[in-house]
Amino acid sequence: MGPLVRGLAVLRALAGHEAGARVRPADLARATGLARSVVDRVLTTLGHLGYVRADGREVVLAVGLMELGNAYLTASGVPAALGPHVARLAAALDASVSVAVPDADGVRIVTQAARPRAAAAGFRAGLRIGDLLPAGRCAPGALFAAAPPDWAVDDQLLEPGLVAVAVPVRDPAGRTACAVTVTSHTSRHSADGLRQETLTALRAAVPAMEAALADAGTGGAPGAEGGGAAPASYGMPYDGPATALSPAPDLPRTGPGTA
Questions:
Q1: Rounded CA separation 46/39 (Å)
Q2: pLDDT per residue as tens digits for the range 11-40
Q3: Series of mean pLDDT values for 10-residue runs along the chain (259 residues)
Q4: Cβ atoms within 10 Å of 227's Cβ, excluding its own
């Protein structure tokens, strides 16, 4: 394992901890399988680069790390091209709206607009920029299949209480460049209710989004190097019936609210 790989392994292990978690070098050694002395050297280098900092005996990510994440967001052109459209959709639908691109075996959120009004207490109303979602357990993941559907619904498969509807945004060659998703909670919508309330607006917004991507010169599917496609059976074309993503048996299901 080369120095770069070791450094990335330590950064990923550190980023994988919950916000506010107390992380010490020994924790990173256990998480990465690296020797403690190696972890110490890596942290020293990352500290000099401004990517981590010491907080007493603990280690935290430093603000300098933002330049790496922001570099992709800027280079891809997706947030700049689609951000205004996403914000308008969120305001019109009073819901959280996000855009995802494929990343390895999942999909990653690259732009997002939160629900304008306050969500129910304790509910994470939508997805965050940078979130990596398993392709087979979320609505946008289904849209990067080899034969993608025209839309997909997630009925609490990703997270109990969270429902979502996604549609593809295609490049000029007809490939799915990214997926736009509206997310809600069962206290406000059932999965089918969310589909009925938002799918028409989502589909109506797609042509302008596709034109914005073309004008920005993003070309092919950003992030498509991962190729993490979900099975095509997760959704069917709009003109026919759809098989929605459903909750896993071990996930508690909150009763659907009214649409």
A1: 10
A2: 989 888 777 678 999 999 999 999 999 999
A3: 89 82 90 94 93 90 83 79 92 92 90 70 60 90 91 92 94 92 92 95 96 78 42 33 40 30
A4: 14
For the chain, the residue count is 259
Residue 83 · residue 171 · CB < 8 Å: no
CATH architecture of 3-61: Orthogonal Bundle (1.10)
Compute the CA torsion angle 112, 118, 121, 124 (nearest 10 deg). 0
Domain with CATH 3.30.450.40 in the chain: 70-234
Q: How far apart are CA 93 and CA 189, in angstroms?
A: 12
CB 254 within 8 A of CB 187: yes
- For domain 70-234, the CATH architecture is 2-Layer Sandwich (3.30)
